[in-house]
Automatic annotation (TrEMBL):
Amino acid composition bias (Low complexity), ranges on this chain: 269-289
Source species taxonomy: Bacteria, Bacillati, Actinomycetota, Actinomycetes, Micromonosporales
Keywords: Membrane, Transmembrane, Transmembrane helix
Name listed for the protein in its UniProt record: Uncharacterized protein
Residue numbers spanned by region Disordered: 269-312
Origin superkingdom: Bacteria
Organism the protein comes from: Couchioplanes caeruleus subsp. caeruleus
Transmembrane feature ranges: 24-48, 60-80, 86-107, 114-135, 155-174, 243-262
Length: 312
């Protein structure tokens, strides 16, 4: 994502196009840096715990944050070297570094399998977005895009909802699959709310990325909006669309993961059936009667004198 953003920015010789390209490319680079920082920090954490002894909570958090910061500095260098004299690339570089550092801090979470599943789910969301981008020319007319601006805006809104829904579905399924794989590999499981948290993780990462873009990278978006009224409107629409997609991914991913883990939970046994089974097990077992003994007892009863029988 950083390589793509850098290539998109540097191919323009016009200053205005360079600014708008930077504003368009920054959100994707920020979200990718957030996931990359968390992933590298998880790798460092797994390397340190390879002998079965993991560092304490404080040391773990410091190391994870430091690994994310290292990734962020490398990503920031790629933007800062585009033009070291202007402030715009310094802002983008700082935003990318902050995103990777926050991602590294998230890797210090107590349950690394949850963070790892959320990172994988975020990558699944990115892949869904790329695939839908290739199919955009086919999907937009099917969603009602026509020759008018109103129909195109409406179709774009539906397209964003479809993108978020499919991304959330993929995120929920991928996170659940990886959480189950971690359970089989380690032999231990976590409570079901953590499955839901893992499914919500990709959406949460997108929300954090959007908040960083609007705060740390706000000056870049403002500068792009000053170019023209049209560009200002575009930036506002894109910002709202990104947040809406992130929220859709968050909720759909959460419910998908909850449904998936609910299907794997065993149903409680029937109390009456359990009681019957317990009674059957606890009751003494009687040996079957011998037919010959039954026959001898019947003959003895028939030959018994009548006077010896007691009156009712």
């Amino acid at each position: 994502m950083i390589w793509s953003a850098r290539a998109s920015i540097t191919r323009h010789t016009n200053a205005e196009m360079e600014v708008t390209s930077t504003a368009y490319a920054m959100p994707g680079a920020v979200s990718a840096s957030l996931v990359a920082g968390a992933a590298v920090a998880l790798a460092v954490r797994a390397f340190l715990a390879r002998n079965g002894r993991e560092p304490g909570a404080t040391v773990r958090f410091v190391l994870a944050t430091g690994a994310g910061l290292a990734v962020g500095l490398l990503g920031a260098l790629a933007f800062f070297t585009i033009n070291t004299e202007g402030w715009i690339y310094a802002v983008v570089a700082g935003t990318v570094a902050a995103a990777a550092t926050i991602g590294g801090a998230l890797a210090g979470f107590r349950y690394p399998r949850v963070t790892a599943a959320a990172c994988a789910g975020a990558i699944a969301v990115f892949l869904v977005r790329i695939l839908l981008t290739f199919a955009q020319d086919t999907l937009l007319p099917a969603l009602g895009a026509g020759d008018t601006a109103a129909s195109q805006a409406s179709a774009a809104g539906y397209f964003g909802f479809v993108q978020g829904a499919l991304g959330g579905l993929a995120a929920g399924l991928v996170t659940h699959r990886l959480m189950r794989h971690a359970r089989r590999r380690s032999g231990t499981d976590v409570k079901w709310p953590l499955y839901a948290l893992a499914g919500a993780g990709p959406g949460l990462l997108l929300v954090v990325s959007e908040l960083l873009t609007r705060t740390a990278g706000a000056r870049v978006l403002e500068l792009a909006g000053k170019i023209s009224e049209l560009e200002l409107t575009v930036q506002q629409v894109l910002s709202g669309t990104r947040l809406n997609i992130a929220l859709v991914v968050l909720f759909v991913g959460t419910f998908t993961a909850m449904i998936a883990v609910g299907r794997t939970l065993g149903s409680p046994a029937d109390p009456s059936a359990s009681a019957s089974a317990t009674t059957a097990v606890s009751a003494p077992t009687q040996a079957p009667a011998d037919p010959e003994e039954i026959e001898r007892a019947a003959r003895a009863e028939d030959t018994e004198p009548v006077g010896s029988q007691k009156d009712d």
